[in-house]
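Supplementary Methods, section 5.1.

A reviewer requested that the exact input to the structure prediction be made available. We therefore reproduce it here, unchanged from the version used in the analyses.
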Amino acid sequence: MKFTQFLKTRGAIAAIFMGIFYAVAMLGIFLPGYSAIPGNVDQLSVAIVNDDAGEYGATIADQLQGKLPFKEIETDLTNKQALNELEKNDLALVIHIPATFSENLQKGEVSSSIDFTINEAGPTTVSSTMNSVVTQINEQLSEQFSKQTAQGVIANFNVPQEQAAGLADKIETAYVGNVVTINNVPDGMNNNMMPMFLTMAGYVGAMIGAMQLVGAFRASRGRATKTRLFIYVQLTALLIAVVSSLAATGIAYLINQPSGELFLNIVGHQMLNYMVCFNFTAVLIFLIGEGGMILNLPILLMQTLANGATIPRDMMYGPFQWMSHISPMYYSVQAYYADLFGSISPSPFMWSMVAIGAGAMVINILIVTFLHKPMPIEKGLVNPESVKNTTEITA
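The structure derived from this sequence is encoded token-by-token as follows.
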């Protein structure tokens, strides 16, 4: 066989096609998708809660509202309501001006502080961006209030030298920005990205499993009814879900060492993740065969951005936002953040996964029922369940 003849084989053509297709799909999805950072930062929502009855609180609230680079700034929430929204990642930052802010600033006896609260159990882009924003705000406010305090004490410069240091300290500590983080994630990128990595491990395994098991389904046609074969496919997927989830959880505990109380939660979550992703990716393979795997690849690539681990939904471009609403990866990642690091229930996200999985399974059942024509069972194949022992035992 000549090299040119080898290049014309089905395997060589498929390999060439996939090499080009995967490169185009990956770069064509990732580069535009990640261009939302930092361009779409203004799409995030923040809250300013002013409990200060004095003039300084209102002034700062107005200044922040005019200068912060966010289109949606909530100002009509209580601090409790705002923190609750922050827990659910519906807000990216809560700025709280306490009731005694103006009083403390005027007295000059204690530092006046503003609380900036950030939720770490969420997309990495949000926490890093909010920390940068808070740093800039604090630098500007420190300079502003130091100047105001200096003007307040300038008349007292004709004081003994020993009091000079005290006046300097008073100017420097007029304002202190208090950065508060909730749902702290342990140090290390491996911890922050664990929800995404666990989810992707299940998704990719399920996608490959769907290709293999649907292939086995097609190859076994004529040896059993399509209903029986479909049940076998689901039972095999469930078996894989159990084994692979135990393996994935074991690796997670070996490296990241999460709380032992979460072991069963993680195993159960991974099993659900596998089954949902299996049926989700099997739709195209049941529908068009092995070619469905080609379409599953760009869908997978889109979900790596649309899962909310790096970019929040508010910052995503339209196609990725749309994908996040039907993506099992998005709800799995959010459920993991809530379960591993957060203080809210992961149940709403888990039920969303169940709904997607159930919908995908119904679609698969409809495809098998109406598009896969029934085939006669081959003669000569014996169904073990129909075999009866007719041998008579004689004494």
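The beta strands are 45-50, 72-74, 93-97, 112-119, 175-182. These observations are discussed further in the main text.
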